[in-house]
Design goal:
With 454 residues, the chain is mainly α. Helices cover 62% and strands 4% of the residues. It folds into three domains: 146 residues, no CATH class; 84 residues, no CATH class; 111 residues, no CATH class. Helix 3 runs antiparallel to helix 4 and helix 3 runs parallel beside helix 5.
Length: 454
């Protein structure tokens, strides 16, 4: 399935590679080290994942990264299948089909070279372990601290979510304790405490553990970063509109299934569905967790009823669809890691400018510049450019004011002493600079233009 992953849309991979390279050459950074800004306080939320990405890229190129993400996806599929088997009384064919459908949606929307793939795998394994535990397989619960340790060093921004996903099981086992005098809740809470303490084993200590509290819920990020947007089917951004429609359809289908099978769900299954639905409505990125950790439970009554013969027929149709996607992506070459927007821009810059030249760039173009040793003005690590995080300046606010034409561009340019401006075509800034005699276009491609000050 990983053959249909579209890596061409991914820009964050470049700053992850830069992070990994920096750690291996210089150690763990505490001051932001990739951009032109100085003395910005910095906490790297994905050091372990960045190192893995860089080593794979260094020794195997993009094939190494693609293969690694593909293997993680295979593990996600495997645990999805095992979870569906566990909750459906071993209905193999339909469990395989449901796991395939969920994984296909994840592949199309969320399985990309970002640390979230590790987070999703860990959350899925966590749910699988907790399901085993609630069915009285007690020894497996001791794996939770190991998962916590991996998550805090791979993707600390999602670490607290580990404990959020435990809470529905705490509630249900608490109910068993008062009704049936079942003592398993004590062991679960003890293991959760150990898992929390294990979280301190990371390069930044408590700062990494509470990274999400400081970096999320910031309005300017939520409003301008697509994955942080709320569900909005009327958005003018196609990606937000598409994901919102998909989620609402899935939500309504599941709500319909729950209504007609409401006596067949347990306390923790209800809590997972409604809690993760609320999170998905608040931030589009949470749709992935909703799909993994709620959908299998809601569909459980249908899995149990489905007949094997019908399952095989549907599965055959599904396989044909997967092969079609694979062939389409092979023809288009979309699974090759590349940056189409910036490749020839970078060639021109390497031939005409020094690496220390001051560059104004757009948000998405920063990581590729930085990976190629240029000092960008901004990149896709949005929270790094918020004063609450960097303790110095709200650079992201300033950037938004500049590209929207609110802040005077000449004053801004003088303040930073920019020499080169990489401007997106058809943007407000492009029209301004093109009609300004103080600036000239020295190079352009289909996506961007390079301006110089005369």
């Amino acid at each position: 399935m990983f053959c249909i992953i579209d890596f061409s849309r991914e820009t964050d991979i470049w700053f992850l590679l830069s992070h990994g390279r920096y750690i291996l050459n210089n150690g763990i950074p505490h001051i932001e080290m990739l951009t032109m800004h100085s003395n910005l306080k910095f906490v790297m939320q994905q050091p372990g994942f960045s190192i893995i990405m860089y080593l794979l890229y260094k020794y195997m190129g993009s094939i190494g990264i693609i293969t690694f993400i593909g293997l993680i996806n295979i593990l996600i599929f495997f645990f999805l299948y095992k979870l569906c088997l566990l909750i459906s009384s071993n209905n193999k064919y339909f469990s395989f089909l449901i796991a395939s459908i969920i994984d296909l949606l994840l592949v199309l929307l969320f399985i990309i070279p970002r640390p979230q793939v590790i987070s999703l795998l860990i959350f899925l394994i966590l749910i699988y372990i907790l399901e085993k535990y609630i069915r009285k397989e007690s020894k497996i619960i001791f794996f939770l601290p190991i998962l916590s340790l991996i998550l805090i060093n791979m993707h600390s921004a999602m670490w607290l979510m580990f404990f959020v996903l435990c809470m529905p099981y705490v509630v249900e086992l608490g109910y068993y304790y008062f009704i049936k005098k079942d003592n398993r809740i004590k062991k679960l809470i003890l293991i959760m405490i150990v898992s929390f303490i294990v979280g301190f084993i990371n390069p930044y200590g408590y700062e990494n553990m509470f990274y999400s509290i400081n970096s999320y819920g910031i309005n300017i990020i939520n409003n301008n970063i697509s994955e942080m947007n709320k569900v909005n089917i009327f958005s003018n951004k196609s990606m937000i509109q598409y994901n919102s429609c998909l989620f609402i359809i899935l939500f309504l289908i599941q709500l319909f299934i729950i209504f007609f099978n409401r006596k067949k769900y347990t306390i923790h299954e209800y809590l997972l569905f409604f809690g993760l639905s609320l999170m998905a409505f608040m931030n589009l990125r949470n749709i992935s967790i909703f799909l993994l950790c709620s959908f299998p439970f809601v569909i459980k009554p249908i899995i149990k009823k489905f007949k094997t013969v019908i399952s095989i027929k549907i599965f055959a149709i599904f396989i044909v669809a997967i092969l079609s996607f694979y062939i389409y992506n092979c023809i288009n070459g979309a699974y090759i890691l590349k940056d189409k927007k910036m490749n020839d821009i970078l060639i021109y810059m390497n031939n005409n400018y020094s690496k220390n030249i001051k560059i104004f760039n757009y948000f998405d173009d920063g990581p590729y510049l930085e990976f190629n040793n240029y000092r960008a003005y901004i990149d896709t690590r949005a929270e790094v450019f918020i004063k609450k995080m960097n303790k110095k300046k709200d650079i992201f606010d300033e950037y938004m004011d500049v590209i929207m034409g609110i802040k005077d561009f000449d004053e801004f340019s003088k303040e930073y002493d920019f020499k080169v401006f990489i401007i997106e075509k058809d943007s407000i800034l492009y029209k301004k600079l093109k009609n300004n005699h103080d600036y000239k276009i020295v190079y352009q491609n289909k996506y961007n233009s390079i301006f110089e000050k005369k």
